[in-house]
Write a structure and sequence with these properties.
single chain, elongated, 626 residues, eleven-stranded mixed beta sheet, mainly beta
Length: 626
């Protein structure tokens, strides 16, 4: 019994005093200033967070607090350990003050956020890698000694695991805590070794705040990140995986212990993803099945999939994939969200996404674009048929654009495009960047081949311009617009006072236009917002106070007197509409008058002879005005 007690006392004495770490003497350098614990070595960090209350900095009479703030005041190296976090700690806040951490062991040197502490929250601030290692390739480096702040030793830039990680071998059923990176820059664009993995979160929710940049070349045996739950909370976070990446995909949803994977960008936040490897951006199912994938963008989401050249034709899509594919994928692009998915090959592959529901909300702007110049059908923007019921819902979007280069962006006959029933949208088809079809004010749904299950109003499937839309290499879907496209010719009247049109009693008469070869007037408005056009055209006259001007509608005996104030002359219902689908006339509305209708001027035999000039102004007003 005395022997056992003696061992415990030695351990307590060591950790509370100078301390022993492995066979090395640890120089204590922890100072407490206003409840912020300042450290200068990796062993200090281990002493504060990686030990129990009977070892390290803490004791039974002075246990670790539930909330702990640490300031890292020098670059540090994490010793050769794999430790959990002190069980007393619930909220851990570590500010690196623009210093960097290194690792002693390439395949360990990390702290585990385990199933024993499912409510643990860790926040890492202001980690900044040294520009000295921007060109480093294998990760070997001379690093600070883990136990002596003035010493140096051999070590590595990164470990196989991230500084804090989940435990893939013991997966909790629920983990309510999180791991947050705030204003972190780890920039090793040439690093391609066993330490070239940025995140090993597994079941731990990842959060990003502030300005973050993560960049590694990658290696054939590593992913960029292993995740199940990721949120960009605010600021901008950029993640770049280089050409060395080769295992599974950039983001591997593996060993999550969850049936649901969540990726989201909050309002006002930006997430930029650059995948320069010939692998999936999202890879599912290595370890445990993920049944439902939820991707939500309420801010700005830019994904660039550029590992392949724009002329390569891989059989498999490398944006989405995996060995055990999800049964359901939900992509929600929120109000006013900006989403850009740009790829050198196909962009979306419904066959790898289970039942796909993509919903773009009010005011959102979405571009799905492939740069691929081949005619290989696997390289369409949306490649392949989704599971039954797969749908793209467009709810009053600002723009939803599917952009190919040489072949149509989508021809999936069981992927439904649903434009809704309340906010009409215009469908524009382009071939070689020239408009080849225009379907205005469309409501309802249709499948991706533009002809099957046509529930559109007006119909597309029987339209004479259907083939143009089917062959378009780019399709933009966006709200309609209204523009005053009037280019009315000048009106001229040339009369002799002796002409018989003037009554002898010198009463005034409305004069038809006669001063040109063609005295027709054509009024033009472009309105693609709705099938029933709701606008008013107004006119006012200035510059000729000697005469009264007026406007006479077709089929009417009445003349509307015009003056300096705007008068209503035409309503939307008075105009003739062009042909839906026709890129030259769809949405174009015209009103044509002969010489005896439209703009007229009043005169009589008693008028003075001379030349009189005036100006007529036509104004387009949204809405009907009686």
């Amino acid at each position: 019994m005395r022997n056992k007690m003696k061992i415990v006392l030695i351990i307590l004495g060591v950790w509370l005093g100078a301390g022993l770490y492995g066979n090395n003497k640890v120089e204590a350098s922890i100072t407490n200033t206003n409840n912020v614990y300042h450290i200068t070595t990796g062993a200090d960090l281990v002493s504060l967070i990686g030990a129990t209350n009977i070892a390290g900095y803490w004791s039974i009479t002075n246990p670790a607090p539930s909330s702990l703030s640490i300031s890292v005041d020098k670059d540090i190296t994490i010793p050769d350990i794999n430790l959990g976090v002190n069980s007393n700690i619930k909220n851990l806040d570590i500010d690196f003050n623009n210093h960097m951490y290194y690792v002693k062991n390439r395949i360990s040197s990390s702290f585990i956020m385990s199933n024993l502490q499912p409510s643990l929250n860790v926040t890492l601030h202001n980690i900044k890698s040294s520009s000295e290692y921007t060109s480093a390739t294998n990760g070997d480096a001379t690093v600070p000694d883990p136990t002596n702040e003035t010493g140096k030793t051999s070590g590595y830039l990164l470990s196989y695991y991230s500084l804090f990680r989940g435990d893939w071998s013991i997966v909790p059923s629920n983990f309510s805590g999180s791991l947050t990176y705030d204003n972190v820059s780890i920039n090793y664009p040439n690093l391609s070794d066993a330490g070239a993995q940025m995140f090993s979160a597994y079941y731990v929710p990842l959060r990003f705040t502030g300005q973050n940049n993560f960049n590694i070349k990658g290696t054939s045996t590593q992913e960029f990140a292993e995740i199940s739950d990721l949120t960009v909370v605010n600021g901008k976070t950029a993640m770049t995986w280089g050409s060395g990446g080769g295992n599974d995909g950039m983001f591997s949803v593996a060993y999550t212990g969850r049936n649901t994977s969540n990726i989201s960008v909050n309002t006002g936040a930006t997430w930029e993803v650059n995948n320069n490897a010939k692998k999936n951006i999202l890879y599912y199912g290595r370890g445990i099945t993920t049944n439902t994938v939820n991707i939500t963008n309420n801010g700005t989401m830019n994904w660039n999939n550029l590992g392949y050249s724009n002329s390569e034709t891989p059989a498999a899509n490398s944006v989405w994939g995996g060995v055990i594919l999800p049964t359901t994928t939900n992509i929600n692009l929120g109000n006013n969200a900006v989403t850009n998915f740009i790829s050198n090959i196909s962009v979306l592959n419904p066959q790898s996404m289970g039942k796909l529901t993509l919903t773009a909300q009010n005011g959102s702007q979405t571009i799905l674009k492939t740069n691929n110049t081949s005619t290989n059908v696997n390289q369409r923007v949306i490649n392949g048929n989704g599971a039954s019921g797969s749908k793209i819902n467009l709810n009053a979007v600002k723009l939803f654009s599917m952009q190919g280069q040489t072949i149509p962006p989508v021809q999936a006959n069981n992927l439904i495009l649903d434009l809704g029933t309340t906010s009409p949208l215009t469908i524009k088809g382009f071939q070689n960047n020239e408009l080849n079809s225009l379907f205005v004010a469309e409501l309802g749904s249709i499948t991706g081949d533009w002809k099957t299950n046509d529930q559109m109003n007006p119909k597309i499937s029987g339209n004479s311009y259907l083939s143009n839309l089917q062959n378009a290499t780019r399709v933009d879907i966006q709200p309609g617009e209204i523009n005053n496209t009037n280019q009315v010719k000048p009106s001229n009247w040339v009369y002799q006072l002796a002409d018989s049109i003037f009554p002898n009693d010198k009463s005034k008469v409305w004069l038809p236009r006669n001063g040109a070869t063609d005295n027709q007037q054509v009024f033009s408005v472009f309105d693609s917002r709705a099938q029933q056009h709701n606008f008013t055209l107004q006119a006012s006259v200035s510059g000729d106070p000697e005469h009264q001007y007026g406007f006479k509608k077709n089929g009417s005996a009445d003349v509307i007197n015009l003056g300096s104030g705007a008068q209503n002359i035409l309503q939307g219902a008075d105009f003739n509409a062009g042909t839906n689908g026709d890129p030259n006339s769809a949405g174009k509305l015209t009103y044509t008058t002969d010489a005896e209708h439209g703009l007229l001027v009043q005169s009589s035999k008693s008028d003075k002879a001379g030349v009189f000039n005036g100006t007529v102004t036509y104004t387009l007003v949204d809405g009907a005005i009686e």
